[in-house]
Amino acid sequence: MAATEQEQSPRGHVLARIFYSHASQLIIPTSIERRGEQDGVAGAERAKSLLRDGVGLVIIYTHPSRTDTHRLMGLWRDNEYATPPCLIPIAYHQMNLAARISAWPTGVEFHGIVTKETVARGKNKGHEEGYGSIKFLEVGIQTLSRGGIVLLAPSSTRTTRLTMPDGIRPTDMLLNTAQRKGVPFALMSTGFEINGVTSYEHANGFNFFRRYTLRTGNTFTNREILEQLERFRTERGLQADSRRPFNDTDQWLFETQLPSLVPVTYHP
Question: What is the domain count for the chain?
Fold first, then answer.
């Protein structure tokens, strides 16, 4: 896979990320469990190797609660994840002072997108649902082209079940755009379990001091994803779109990659 040399974040930002990943354990404790072994190598280790080679990485994650993005930053305990540029899309109404303060020492770029929840809360400031998505795609491609990391929840908002939302295909859009721009990338799936919870209906808050398990799954390059999608479409009777080769990636994730990374109690 052709890639450029990875752009590294300033040393101060890297140190702040590593510090945050450890200090945050006092409030949002999160264990990391590596799964998704491919050719004897765990997916998370393969992702680190690709990052070292300058390949941008999309990290997919499930989104059952309010602290998931910050818990995912526990990956920064590994220097390979803490070093690259990092982009995190969040709900438009969460682009507040707290987000800006946390972004300053770590150098993480937060990007706000108007979600259904934003509209329901009346905090969309007149913007329609989806506002900010086009700009996110532009910045996301720039981040991947620099060998950086883009965190992405394909559900786009918190969900109490592992269900794909109607009409929203954020992963399809990002990967198709990267393909069109000629930007190489890899993708790693991750999923959360809230330890001790049997029903996620009432566990979608901050859950401070409650331990989570973050499971990392398979890592695929863009070429390998296309191979996976070809088999997936054949099995499901889906038609490929030559102009948008990464269509159906969201469905593939929800049906084949994410279920093994979350507890049965989070399944549909």
Answer: 1
